[in-house]
Write a structure and sequence with these properties.
Order of helices and strands: HHHHEEHHHEEE
Structural class: alpha+beta
Radius of gyration: 21 Å
CATH architecture of the largest domain: 2-Layer Sandwich
Strand content: 15-25%
CATH topology of the largest domain: Beta-Lactamase
CATH class of the largest domain: Alpha Beta
Number of strands: 5
Oligomer: single chain
Largest sheet: 5 strands, antiparallel
Length: 188
């Protein structure tokens, strides 16, 4: 036990001496046995690893829910292609009239609004005084053109604080668009 503790302390000292890039590379390769006691820095690496696994699982769960909706609503789009290599925190699905029919938990985490708060509203309810009219016009034009696009817009959380939001919108449906998927994330 004493030797094991010395090894873990040496690991902590080694890890604390690394640059951020080297630390991320090395820490991702450390295999953790959660039944063993770990020093503080080792615990930080373990918890970071666990958080990344949770985020990945949540992402997979969200995509699975969207696939389920796609099947139910007979969408012909390649859902995997929509999500492929996309970064997002929130997912909103609206009908063709832009009424929200589904949001993921990431939407609540990012905006403070629950699913109940958002359902049957348009994403316009997230806008406020600093939201650019030019951004709103570009979004409206691209939605009317039924074309995929990316836009950055100032939105507002439930507590009224503004944030910059990157929105990637994809029209979905069968022979013609019946819904939109919006993948959103906060940007600086």
């Amino acid at each position: 036990m004493k030797n094991n503790l010395s090894n873990m302390m040496a690991l902590d000292i080694y890890l604390s001496s690394l640059s951020k890039e080297d630390f991320e590379t090395v820490s991702s390769k450390i295999d953790y046995d959660s039944s063993k006691r770990l020093p503080l820095m080792s615990w930080d690496i373990y918890s970071d690893s666990l958080m990344l696994k949770r985020k990945k699982a949540q992402r997979e769960h969200d995509i699975l829910k969207v696939r389920s909706l796609a099947k139910k609503l007979n969408w012909q789009n390649d859902i995997n292609a929509i999500f492929n290599e996309q970064q997002f925190e929130a997912i909103l699905i609206t009908d063709i009239d832009q009424k929200i029919i589904w949001v993921n938990q990431g939407f609540t985490a990012m905006t403070g609004y629950s699913k109940v708060d958002a359902l049957n509203k348009t994403p316009h309810f997230l806008q406020g005084p600093e939201t650019s009219n030019d951004s709103k016009e570009r979004i409206r034009a691209k939605l009317n053109a039924i074309t995929p696009f990316t836009e950055v817009i100032i939105n507002y959380r439930k507590d009224k604080t503004p944030y910059k939001c990157e929105v990637k919108i994809f029209p979905i449906g069968n022979d013609e668009a019946t819904h939109f998927i919006a993948l959103e994330r906060q940007v600086s």
